[in-house]
Sequence to fold (80 residues):
Amino acid sequence: MTEDVGVVTGELTIRTEAVGDDAQAARVQVQYTGAEEWYTLQGGSAIPLSGCSVEQVHQAVLRAAAQGADGGVSADHLPH
Fold:
């Protein structure tokens, strides 16, 4: 689910990048692979890192997507 266009399905590319003054949050966006427009995941505009790295958040998003996590990314997807 995205904030911009709702549900996106199919072959997608996911990117996660640091945002904020001190890069203490991450933004997660998706695009239809090969398209130009990026869409922000619902709740993904400023995810607090809280001890996780951007890469760990990115891997959690990839795991959630691979599992078809309808509820999005949760703490269960992050490393313990």
